[in-house]
Amino acid sequence: MSKAKSGEQPHYELLYLISNKFSEDEVKPIMEKVNALVTANGGEISLSEELGKKRLAYPIKGFRFGYYNLVEFDMMGENLAKLDRALRLMNEILRQQIVVKVLRTAQQIARDKKIAEKIAAKNVAAEKTAKEKVKERAKEKVDLKDLDEKLDKILETDDLL
Fold first, then answer.
1. CA-CA distance, 35 to 147, in Å (whole number)?
2. Per-residue pLDDT tens for 80-94?
3. CB atoms inside a 10 Å sphere around CB 126
4. What separation in angstroms does the CA of 61 have from each of 15, 96, 152?
5. Tally of helices (H runs) and strands (E runs) in the chain
6. DSSP string across 99-140
7. Cβ contact 87:38 at 8 Å
8. Which of 85, 79, 88 is nearest to 16 (CA)?
9. In this structure, which of 37, 91, 127, 131 has its CB flanked by the most CB atoms within 10 Å?
10. Cβ pair 69, 50 in contact under 8 A
């Protein structure tokens, strides 16, 4: 765990799963309830994102699907245990995880974005070369009609033996 400078609140990331027994309309109030818990325990939310419904890697409490949600917030460490306990007691939440998140500077975000763009450009170039290779292989293949004509010419000749 990284320690924050004196006077600064550490930055945390909360990822939680909401049970699939709720519809998408019923998930929003649950998300608001979790956000209210964070703020009630002295947290300042900087990001709240709904990641959508996804298949779970393994069944949790009999559910194979769940709604993933992400919340980033600043909070003093002594309130974190209260928040964690309150989340564990919520029946709507299947699993949750709170981790310390390192705040990135604007330069780091820009650098990561450039790296992601380079990787995407390489992937696009690799796809183009793969498509060109497939086209070349298709050109190399002989048509069935041409093959029949060549076979007929071979069979028509008398000097096979």
1. 70
2. 889 999 999 988 899
3. 10
4. 18, 14, 69
5. 4, 4
6. EE-PPPPHHHHHHHHHHHHHHHHHHHHHHHHHHHHHHHHHHH
7. no
8. 88
9. 37
10. yes
